[in-house]
Amino acid sequence: MEHHHRSDTLDRRSMMRLVGSASGIGYAANMNQINAFAQDALNDQLRASGKRVILLWLAGGASQLETWDPKPGRPTGGPFAQIQTSIPGIGISELMPKMSTRLGETAIIRSLNTKIADHGTAYELMDKGRVNEAGVDFPHLGAILARELGNIESKVPDYVSMYTSTEGRRKGSAGFLGGRYNPMFLTDAMMPENIQRLEAITDTDHRDRAELLDQLSKIYARHHSHPSFEGHHSAYGRVRGLMASDYLFDIERESETVRNQYGPTQFGQQCLVARRLVEAGVPFVKVARAWWDSHGQNFETHQELCADLDHCMSTLLDDLKDRGLLESTLVISLGEFGRTPSINGSLGRDHFASAWSCTLSGCGIQGGTVHGKTDQDGNTVVEGEMNAGDLYATIFAALGIDHTKEYMLGSRPIPIADFDSTPCYPILT
Predict the structure, then answer these.
(1) For residue 291, is the peptide bond before it cis, meaning its omega torsion is within 30 degrees of 0?
(2) What global pTM score does this model have?
(3) Is 258 within a domain?
(4) Is the residue at 353 inside a domain?
């Protein structure tokens, strides 16, 4: 009798985790309930465009005054100066010196008014472009873009979400789009769990097992037809693809020069993985940098975090540009809200969603532009106000996606950007 030891095979639980990584939270989405109105030809064109997105998520809410919208000399301004950028007449915080020379591919939006200033609901709002309604779990940005930009036959993941050691949250749901578009979470390390072939299994054995599974699946499919089986088979196919793509998560494959350019921080290394992933065709990658929630010692906190953001963001943009990827890759820097212009008794800034900033760089963006304006102390938006839906519409427009496109949830049409959302056309090419 042949005995199978744990070292010789993946146990069932490990395989289920790997399948879950490939297909979200289950083997398949029930796609029968969702239908796009867009023509198939348009979908094919979008998928063939090769457009990709990297979201630099500033978890906890970065201060706009210490980054993109400084107010030097004002009571709200804080201790840091404004520096002139490469764009005449545009200044940003002195904490962002490298980005000040790289705004040729970047648009700054200084006029977000999203109104919600508690972490949980604000995260949901900025993650989905709207808050959930009773009975409706809206998909998040990564899930929408995975569906719109991804290739159904692709063996690489549609959406990868990088972990942080301090954020402590595994958020993000494909909502009614289903588990097929949930992210692959990297929660403990940059290499996904169980993605590498065990040394005890040879390449030949691995191929033989895959061929046997394909043969058995074809036999079963001739006699049974059900969406769950098709999703199950697709998920296993994606697992095999992921196992062949493990090198994408290994930055040791990069030259020492490139690794040194990104630097030793977790954020820098994950930005390098993000570049490797989009270069291989992954539609959406989220890299989070925590923790910007500076209710106390705001200025010391931002000195540290802005240095990391400034270096990693500028290195990522340079690397994408040098490789000819920036024209097809949209890089977003965004958090759930900004920080108050007023400075509290602990020398901190509190949650603030009435007048804050984000940036868009690369694909479809008119670089060297600033949209919107806040008053002299940064308390209110005085020009070009945008909400979360408007930002999402702008992102979709930059990627060539019709922001009025609708999904059908049962008999209910749901636009991918919230109702009455308008793209910010002045920053679009």
Answers:
(1) yes
(2) 0.82
(3) yes
(4) yes
